[in-house]
Structure formats: structure tokens, C-alpha cells
Amino acid sequence: xxxxxxxxxxxxxxxxxxxxxxxxxxxxxxxxxxxxxxxxxxxxxxxxxxxxxxxxxxxxxxxxxxxxxxxxxxxxxxxxxxxxxxxxxxxxxxxxxxxxxxxxxxxxxxxxxxxxxxxxxxxxxxxxxxxxxxxxxxxxxxxxxxxxxxxxxxxxxxxxxxxxxxxxxxxxxxxxxxxxxxxxxxxxxxxxxxxxxxxxxxxxxxxxxxxxxxxxxxxxxxxxxxxxxxxxxxxxxxxxxxxxxxxxxxxxxxxxxxxxxxxxxxxxxxxxxxxxxxxxxxxxxxxxxxxxxxxxxxxxxxxxxxxxxxxxxxxxxxxxxxxxxxxxxxxxxxxxxxxxxxxxxxxxxxxxxxxxxxxxxxxxxxxxxxxxxxxxxxxxxx
Length: 382
Known about the structure:
By secondary structure, the chain is an alpha+beta fold. The chain has helices at about 10-15, 45-65, 70-85, 85-90, 130-135, 200-215, 230-240, 260-285, 295-305, 345-355, and strands at about 20-30, 95-100, 105-110, 120, 140-145, 150-155, 160-165, 180, 185, 225, 295, 310-315, 320-325, 330, 340, 355-360, 370-375. It has three domains: about 10-135, 2-Layer Sandwich (Translation, Eukaryotic Peptide Chain Release Factor Subunit 1, Chain A), CATH 3.30.960; about 140-275, Nucleotidyltransferase, domain 5, CATH 3.30.420; about 290-375, CATH 3.30.1330.30.
């Protein structure tokens, strides 16, 4: 999957950038002909490029109204044209593209999530949708593994699922389960239904894992295993993927449809996420009396600005806008405008910029009646 995972350095660069001619554009894949909601950008690159051109024209018009120079406008247009003509960039299975451009340059990211189209102009980039996309972790993979078939599914945060082609998996991968050695040479034949010794099982699982890792890359996304009885322990023995989930789907995947795998996989992922959030909230409750945690916006904003936030939860649906100055002070505004932004997004960006962890959650998952909560690296002084 051609997916770009923004690094901590990427977020630092994006959130520290300041220029009155800063343009943020989010483009999503067009719906397919059957009215589906799961297409990739590559299914209709011309529609995606047209959406980018239209958004750029809108942004340039907005910049002209605030007296941005023609030279700066032309520089922005040139950066976008260069991206538009990058065929490799658009040949992607991503569902959305985030573009951040100013006269100085351009950064772009391809995302698995389908984000709402957005064009924003201001003195900084609008990284809010990007932050929410990568920090709302209700996503995962399911690997269904038998001797005769391998299926890799991606379960996204919009309750849809798609099967990922394992482009590097050899057609004869299962042959290793029935191999024998003769005269110093390896003679292969198809497995006859009886699984071979453990070494052959591990070799087969290693081949499968190599193909899986080639497609998914990012090892922070949970992977749920559904494997035949002998293959489950063999795969876990050779596994190098740090986010392989401990609990497996307890059924032979040969008997399960894609829908069955999705349902069972989401049950396991939901249990895992719920346990993680519960642990975080318990830690929050224990630290709060020690002044090492808070759900107060002003307190958390100042702590995030000072690099004191270890981890941060925020309501993914919160849209309250305002301004947070360079000292972390929250400045109320009468109404949203070009210089305002979603407050929880800005706090999240500052936490990421200083090495903290950020998680977008649903409101009911938060420990207090507040759209955010944070655990600090140490006790805050009065």
C-alpha cells in the first residue's frame, strides 16, 4: 500500500510553519460507479487531480483577496502542478491525500482514511484532519492463513474492509510444506494435505510474513491472526511485527468469509482498544491528585506548549475554535475565522511536536466531562 506515515519531524515542520500564504488541501477518492464508499485514489486519478486543481484555484482566489503577492501565488501554483504531474504519487491505494503548500515548498501525504474534502488558507497549515486521521486508531489488519490460501484484510475506521493483494507472495509458497532434499538439491512438490515438520511450517510462515510486511509497512497498526491450528504457533514463532495481537480468531479461516473475518477481527480489536483506554483512564485518575494529569483546556494547552505532556486524549468530534498563543494561553474568539483553528487539534499538534503520544477517541471514552485529557511527564508547579 502506497501510504505515507507522517513522522514526528513531519509534524514538527508542519506545525511550526508560519506564512500568511499557507494552504491546506484534503482530497478524497471519488465514489465508485456503484455508489460505494471504498475506492482508492488510483481508481480515478483524474478525478482526484481535478479536485486538487479546483481546491488550488479556490485557495489562490482566497489569497488574492488578502493581498498575497502574485509572485507568491505563482510559486504555490507551480508547486501544486509539480505534484499533480507526479504519476507515482497518484498511483496509490490510499483513499485521501493531504497537501500543505506555501511559496517555500510543498508536503503531501497519502492516507488510508477517507477524509472530508477541505481547503483552508491562513497563516499556518491546518493539520487537524491529518492528526485525527492518524491518531484515531480504530483500524487494523486481519491475516487469514491456511496451507492453501492467504488473505490479508484492512479494517478501517469507517467500518469498511478491503482485501489487500499480496504482490510478492510466490504462487508456490505452500510447496515448502511438502519439500524433501535429495543429492544436495531441494526437490519441491505440492503438500498432500498433511502438514510437514515444524521447520517447514515456520519456513512457510516466514515467506507469508515477508509478503505481508511488504504491503503494510507501518508496524503500529494491530494485526489479528486467523490461522489453521498448526500454523498459528508457527507464525507467532517467526513473527517480527511488533503489533501482532495476542488473541487470535478462534476458527479455521478456511471456513470464514471476508465478512466473518471482519466481524471477528473487529471484536478482538474493540476489546484491545477498550482495555487500552481503560488502562489510560485509570492512570489518569491516579495521577490527577498528584497534579500529573488534567482535563482543563488552559492547563493542558500550557503544558503542551512547554513540552510537558506525555500522552493526550481528545474528542474526535470536538470542533470548538479559538487561538492558542506561543505561551499556551487560550484566547477566546467571537466566531471562527481565517486565523482560528480547532483548539484540541492545536493542542494535539503541540504534543506531537514535543514527542508526546496523541489518541483521538470518542467522547464517552474520556475520563471527565471535557473534550480532552492529558497525562504529564511530571507534576506541574502551581
